[in-house]
Amino acid sequence: MIGKIRLKLIGVRDKDGRIFNLPTAEEIVALIIGDFDGAFDKRDIIVQTQSGDLQRISELHPSYLALQYPLIFPYGEDGFRLGIKHRGVSVDCDILRTNNTMREYFSYIIQDRANQFSLLLNAQKLFQQFLVDSYTMIESARLAYIKTQQPKLRSQTFKNLNQSVQSGQSDASNCGKRILLPSSFTGGARYMMQKYLDVMAICKAVGYPDPFITVTCNPNWPEIYRCLKDKRLNPQDRPDIIARLFKIKINHLIQDFKKHKFFGGIQAIIYTIEFQKRGLPHAHICLFLSAENRFPTAKEIDLVISVEIPDKEMDAELYELVKQFMIHGPCGTDNPHCPCMVNLKCSKKFPKKYVDETCVDSEGYPVYQRRQSCNTVEKNGVLLDNRFVVPYNAILLKKYQCHINVEWCNQTGSIKYLFKYINKGPDRVTAYVYESTTTANVNPQNEEMTNNENLSNEREVDDVKAYLDCRYISTCEAAWRIFKFNIHYRFPPVEILPIHCEDGQAIVYDDNSNLCDVNESTKQIIERYCNLLVNMKRVSINKDNEELIEKLADALPHETWGTYLMMLRNKKGFSSLTLSKFIEKIEAREMEQIKISRMKVFDGEQDIGLYYKGGLNEKTTNLSPKVETAYNAKNSSGSSSKGSNSNTRILRRVS
Question: Alpha carbon of 622 to those of 292, 383, 506, 522, 618: distances in Å?
């Protein structure tokens, strides 16, 4: 018998405050507590039949949504099930993938269609619950696939593999380590580390970023209210509209920077979308300006960044926008319960000091011109002056009418922190569950539910459990991910080169493999690559002989095509014509093999029937584990570098 249970969120700052902070908005969320067992991907759904018998069903059962949400589906409409075909697909068609994925299904049913009333979209808080529930189903399906593929994802370096074979070991399951959550899974620890290394490679190639811009969605945009006209709904009742409009605004802002050159010429752009328990999405954007458009002096910084309240008589519109979006607080003694207060002090270091001229402090952070004036604003009954103004750009603030914080960050001391800040991973909370009939005092052993508890040093860390532990999913994040919008964006693209120390390349194999066979096949691949370089040189000398290129491409096994493509791109010493012809032929064979693999996968509904290689961009391929890393790196799953017509690519070592 379960008594009255309550959930309490802990606000003690003994964890990373950027991830484990408390919510500041009232919203429907999904909170995944980390005390589940190995069957986390299976929901305990029990229904009672008319005969009185109890039956356990899966979340993939067609009647699950109708039973879970009877007010939204009053007629018992079928929900998602395996095998839903795309519209207009015949049985004998040659299309690679004919079935709808779970994400595509939920993205379809939450569309707002003209001249059609949707009970789901007008369900308010129940619709918010439906969104977060839908996305947890999608993510659990992806993680379930990764869990089932664990025997195929064991890895160790070639050097260690040789040592294991020489010591007489043959059981692959006792050597190396498992890739529990690969870098192709959006939001995982390895994924975030790869994105951090990508932006560091961009920084190394083009220099330090200049403006660092934070854009927060404005729920009072007139476009949102036009969509809600005659619907008697508030903006928070339609997180799908908020997500769509914010995506449009971000795309338009990036075009202002790239195409219209708002700050001048752009060498690179990166941004990350976050949610952070505030109820609204926001974006962190780093701009890498060309050399002639950077801000070498403090006076030029003042031309684009301001931290002063404008004169109400001179510019009434800008005054109201600064008052609404760019004023911090009130906090301190006027509001000691403000979320920014830590130990009775503002964690953002407001109020700032008055400064007559812009300068850079000893830590590399800019100190903007913040002069003392008679211009003030009233917020929550408190008069605030220039000391409480957040840095902004007047033109961007007028155009987008939302919180747009513009900072200057072209200093070595802030680069590493800045890039780790924008790639810090998903939101989490620290919480515990207790019975309401008892006191609120909790056992110290249960005070924190984090993924590192009760793990010995000898045990392997479960990356899937660590990712889900205290995971916090808001409605806007659920809508964003269901619509398959980009979480990360980078321009120009970054390509990972398989450069490593001698015998330091990572070898991926199955648990059931024989180590001697794995070692021998790896040696053959290395030998083939060495012969490939020799033959490529010979082909280049023989004026790009088509017949030799054809034979050379046919001689390579398909399991190694992705690896060879990574090695040959940007390879010096060969003519560009030779490389282009050879890469073109290998890519053609690789795509043909992908078609064959996809058809093999979907000949029957194996297990759950969903095959994912990445978080946002679903891949239905069944590639060999040997080329998984190379293929994922080439396709940049879960991030975007679209919008570039340039062939420029930034290269970095694999890490």
Answer: 48, 63, 20, 21, 12
